[in-house]
Amino acid sequence: MTVVEARVPAAHGKAFRLGTGDKISVINTFGNQVVDTWAFDAKDIHHRLSMELTRRYLLKLRPSVGDILYTNYRNPILTLIGDTSDGMHDTLITACDKATYEKLGCDEHRSCADNLAEALAEFGLSLPFTPGPINLFMNVPISNDMNIELKACEAPAGATVTLRAEIDCYVAFSCCPMDIVPVNGPGGRLSPVDIRIERALA
Amino acid sequence: MTVVEARVPAAHGKAFRLGTGDKISVINTFGNQVVDTWAFDAKDIHHRLSMELTRRYLLKLRPSVGDILYTNYRNPILTLIGDTSDGMHDTLITACDKATYEKLGCDEHRSCADNLAEALAEFGLSLPFTPGPINLFMNVPISNDMNIELKACEAPAGATVTLRAEIDCYVAFSCCPMDIVPVNGPGGRLSPVDIRIERALA
Questions:
Q1: How do residues B106-150 score in pLDDT, each as one tens digit?
Q2: What is the reported pLDDT for B202?
Q3: How far B96 CA sits from the closest chain A CA (Å)?
């Protein structure tokens, strides 16, 4: 088995090319770090992980271990095969982007949307929009009256989510650079995460 | 005041060009009809109503009267100013499309995604993907354990939602043609809806 290890630097993004059956783990090494996550069919990145579709097929708001995640063309792209966090992940909220920070008074700030664009560009790829991500480790509780909150990430150091590629695909991660609204670590702390890929084919 | 009235035929879609301040009402004339709804900035349709963003700003899963709906660039595009239904609208679920019906064994079937494309084409517009809609009148209850259900629409005949345009925009509606899974009327009944526009400028 071939193992690849990599680090996604704090406030930055990175994409990985996976073959069918490859397993990729996202390790919240220092804890409290939200990781916006996208996936794209390697044959056509307009076939992409879709939260609207995944919610429809799973009939739930948060995937858990064993659940398949679907593309906007209704095909399996990833399966959530491991999760040592408490399972608090968000499928509801947009990625932060340039406009987010402008509204908060920051004209220059990294964003998850830009991190995705940079990560895809490393493979010569681009999209005319930012798809809705699955926000791993993001703490968005939903009350019984259907209100939601954005709270600080509570993922402990070392919490790990593992995904298996169901097709050849790109998976992109962004270590969310939000340090104004408290969604990441205490005091606006931003952390890197570590990636471990187990290749199905040696 | 100028009033425009129109009908969106059963299983079909239609878009309308609104000026800032125009009010558009969707009347569920016969009841039990889901209406997938989108909106686009008239200056650039890549600036579009975004459920991921609207949930983020409203901090709730379903808009109600008085709520502003936002674009993916975080600008107000519509305000929900009237609602005589019970407020059951869905922001979570993708529009049905060709792939939906193929998975259900129907190779030829109208879809909300195609209805949007046809409606935009009437204005010479197109998009490379189908944005997540707000599904007016769609009955998607959410349980306390975050599971969701797709249930038959319970909107009574005449239930009306009214939206005000906050910018010059296109609003597109699709009378959902789903007659296999019971999300519309009893026995797969599909109905038209009626549209009433009150122009802010005579």
A1: 999 999 999 999 999 999 999 999 999 999 999 999 988 889 999
A2: 66
A3: 10
What does the DSSP assignment read for A92-133? SSPPP-HHHHHHTT-SS---HHHHHHHHHHTTT---SS-PPP
Residue contact A103–B150, C-beta within 8 A:
no
Q: Quote the CA–CA distance of A185 and B105 in Å, as a whole number.
A: 48
Q: A146 is written with which tokens?
A: 């259907």
A contacts of B128 (beta carbons < 8 Å) = 46, 128
Mean pLDDT, residues B62-89: 97
- Contact residues, B window 83-142, toward A, CB-based 8 Å cutoff: 92-94, 99-100, 103, 128-130, 132, 142
Element (H, E) at A15: strand A13-18
The answer to whether the beta carbons of residues A50 and A70 sit under 8 Å apart is yes
Give the HSE-up count for residue A134: Cα atoms under 13 Å, Cβ half-sphere: 32
**Quick one: pLDDT band at residue B153, thresholds 50, 70, 90?**
very high
Q: What is the pLDDT of residues A57-98, one digit of tens each?
A: 999 999 999 999 999 999 999 999 999 999 999 999 999 999
- How many Cβ atoms from other residues are within 10 Å of residue A118's Cβ? 16
Domain ranges in chain B are 2-199
- Label each residue of B86-151 as H, E or C: CCCCECCCCCCCHHHHHHCCCCCCCCHHHHHHHHHHCCCCCCCCCCCCEEECCECCECCCCEECCE
CB B50 within 8 A of CB B72: yes
The answer, as to whether pTM is greater than 0.90, is yes
**At residue B1, does pLDDT exceed 80?**
no
For residue A198, the distance in angstroms to the closest alpha carbon of chain B comes to: 32
Please name every residue paired with A37 in a beta bridge, in sequence order, or none if there are none.
Answer: A134, A173
